Amino acid sequence: MRTLKIILAYDGTEFSGWQVQPGVPTIQATLASAIGRVTGENVLPQGSGRTDAGVHALGQVASFALESVIPTANLAIALNDVLPPSIRVLECMEMAPDFHARKSARAKTYRYRMYRRDICPPFLARYVWHYPYPLDFDAMQAAALLVEGEHDFTSFAAVDPERGNEQELSSVRTVFSSRMSAADGEFLYEIRGNGFLHHMVRNLMGTLLLVGKKTRAPKDLLRILADRTRSAAGATAPASGLYLVRVEY
After folding, report:
1. What number does CATH give the domain 107-248?
2. How far from 95 is each of 4, 177, 220, CA to CA, in Å?
3. What is the mean pLDDT of residues 199-221?
4. With b meaning 16 or more CB within 10 Å and e meaning fewer, what string describes 171-210?
5. CA-wise closest residue to 177 among 113, 112, 109, 223
6. Which of 34, 192, 211, 240 would bridge 143 by S-S if both were Cys, CB 3.0 to 4.6 A apart?
């Protein structure tokens, strides 16, 4: 058996997230089907994490074991031939037997795109949060910096009964960097950390919006973290603006 690692990019708009679910299209199920068509083997690729419905990826990582001797470069080509255009295998490589896309990950980077101009081009609408109303960028940047470091992010985690077991685990995460930038008519929020809770980045973005609207002050981010309750933070930002940029090992 060979342990393989693949790097994926995908448009998540038409998918109900990463994880296999009955009766709906998902990235994991579509990829598993493609692997089966190419190799004849029944495998379930394991992702570095479960992106939600509508979330995109520039560098998702998946791993799986195969008996097939197809060279990795040829396998990438063959998978792209049978995958829908919304999912692309960017790279395929053989790894040590103990490699696991999720368990071996050391850091992830997410990016959130908010489009600020009055009219959002139709070919961009699926990939951004269109918000053309006044916002204080400097305040948002100051607030973003405050979440760097090790914190309990319970206030920014989704309350999801289906993930009850996860919610019993620690909500402490380390954020290595958390920055706002502005370019080409967009506000960009990029965050890199050792792990992320369900909806954490979208809930952070929804809270930064409140800071930009001046209904919260930047320093309120520290109070919201300390409260450790979801109701203290802002609403969940739309999935369309979120991207998994890269996973580090």
Report:
1. 3.30.70.660
2. 6, 29, 44
3. 98
4. bebebeebebeeeeebbbbbbbbebbbbbbbbbbbbbbbb
5. 109
6. 211
For 173: left if phi > 0, alpha if psi spans -120 to 50, otherwise beta; the answer is: beta
What is the C-alpha separation between 61 and 46, in angstroms, rounded?
8
Task: Look at residue 50 and tell me whether its pLDDT is greater than 50.
Answer: yes
Residue 29 clears pLDDT 70, i.e. is over it: yes
Number of C-beta neighbours around residue 74 at 10 A: 11
Domain ranges of the chain: 2-95, 107-248
CATH topology for the 2-95 domain: Alpha-Beta Plaits (3.30.70)
Average model confidence (pLDDT) across the chain? 95
Q: pLDDT tens digits for 179-206? A: 999 999 999 999 999 999 999 999 999 9
Amino acid (1-letter code) at residue 196: F
Q: Which of 218-225's residues contact partners 24+ apart within 8 Å by CB, and which partners?
A: 218/139, 218/142, 218/143, 218/146, 219/146, 220/143, 221/143, 221/146, 221/147, 222/146, 224/155, 224/156, 225/147, 225/151, 225/152, 225/153, 225/155
Q: Among the residues of the chain, which ranges form H helices?
A: 27-39, 72-82, 137-145, 164-167, 200-212, 220-227
Better-scored residue on pLDDT, 167 or 67: 67
User: Which pLDDT tens digit goes with each residue over 89-129?
Assistant: 999 999 999 999 999 999 999 999 999 999 999 999 999 99
Residue 26 region by backbone torsions, left for phi larger than 0, else alpha for psi between -120 and 50, else beta: beta
Model pTM above 0.90? yes
DSSP 52: P
Between vectors from CA 54 to CA 119 and to CA 106, what angle results, nearest 5°? 115
